[in-house]
Specification:
This protein is mainly α and 64 residues long. Helix content is 62%, strand content 6%.
């Protein structure tokens, strides 16, 4: 069973991935998997980090 992370913990984790090309690739692959699971596009003005956080919260993966 996975331990739930706080919104702040998950946000820092995702933002740290933006620092490298490999991390950005990982974020966009995660976005693609989340889209396949939910069929919800990322709004044009939303960052990939925000999109992932919203999905995580909707799936009950975040605490607080």
């Amino acid at each position: 069973m996975h331990t739930k992370k706080t919104l702040q913990q998950r946000q820092k984790e995702l933002q740290s991935l933006l620092a490298s090309p490999a991390g950005r690739t990982e974020l966009y692959e995660l976005e693609s998997r989340y889209y396949e699971a939910s069929a919800r596009f990322r709004p044009a003005k939303a960052s990939v980090v925000t999109y992932i956080l919203v999905h995580d919260r909707g799936q009950g993966l975040l605490s607080g």
